[in-house]
Specification:
Thrombin, subunit H; single chain; alpha+beta; 29% helix; 3 domains; elongated; 5 helices; 6-stranded antiparallel beta barrel
Length: 252
């Protein structure tokens, strides 16, 4: 690693439905007062609908992170070389096998010595992987395995500031680990774009996915700032960069 409420909405919806049902069987004589009353009702309905939309959006962000971890962990692996280890996640899978995204610095020493083979590990399962693509500039690499694995979906839009996210990976080689934090900023460092987040990460998390409440990957954990008094300053390469530069993201 580089150191760098649903219930309320339901009540409102039920009230709206009841109002519509009650008026369905009534014959109205149109007067000016009726027009004004109808306009007022429409404004009230529009305001209540807006409140429903806000509550629905808020509820969608209150994910069951335990359930989400169970869905996403099978797609996250430890990438191990003789020089060290990091994390990787399955971005694409078909009849030819699966591609995993990781950081270039995770496999850099192995690649420098001409070694293209790495171990792709999950619990007591070890697969043989081959480094098939690298992007030194953006610190990205692709590892291919012959086995067909379950992929994660990349997010299609940049996350909003304050979005809750979960980081999965192998800090210090402890596979299957996760931490939760917030998207806390968007930075440009040494000419590259990063998503800043507050979830704790450690050496070994590099290359692991940062996912949103839908389990969609918003970034690739890459590094953090360290120093006296420095806390919760992690950085991820936006998943859009990986999709554009590595050409491995499945069409959604």
């Amino acid at each position: 690693m580089r150191s760098l409420s649903t219930g309320t909405a339901g009540v409102i919806a039920a009230a709206l439905a009841a109002g519509v049902a009650a008026s369905a069987g009534v014959a109205w004589r149109v007067h000016d007062s009726d027009v004004r009353a109808t306009a007022a009702q429409q404004q009230t309905i529009a305001r209540m609908q807006n409140e429903i939309n806000v509550l629905t959006e808020r509820d969608s962000e209150q994910a069951d992170w335990s359930q989400l971890a169970g869905r996403t962990e099978p797609s996250v692996f430890t990438i191990s070389t003789e020089a060290g280890l990091g994390s990787g996640w399955v971005v694409r899978s078909d009849v030819s096998g699966s591609d995993l995204v990781t950081n270039f610095h995770v496999v850099a020493e192995a690649v420098a010595t001409g070694e293209q083979t790495v171990d792709v590990v999950q619990a007591d399962r070890t697969l043989k992987g081959t480094v098939v693509r690298t992007d030194r500039t953006d610190d990205l690499a692709v590892v291919h395995v012959r086995e067909r694995l379950a992929p994660l979906k990349p997010a299609t839009a940049r996350p909003r500031l304050g979005t809750t996210v979960m980081v999965l990976g192998s800090p210090l080689g402890l596979g299957g680990s996760l931490s939760i934090g917030l998207v806390s900023g968007f930075r440009s460092i040494d000419g590259s774009d990063y998503v800043q987040f507050s979830a704790p990460i450690s050496p070994g998390n590099s290359g692991g996915p940062v996912v949103d409440s839908q389990g969609h990957v918003i970034g690739i954990a890459s590094g953090k700032y360290v120093g006296d008094g420095v806390e919760a300053l992690g950085f991820a390469i936006p998943v859009s960069v990986a999709c554009a530069q590595l050409n491995v993201c499945e069409e959604t």
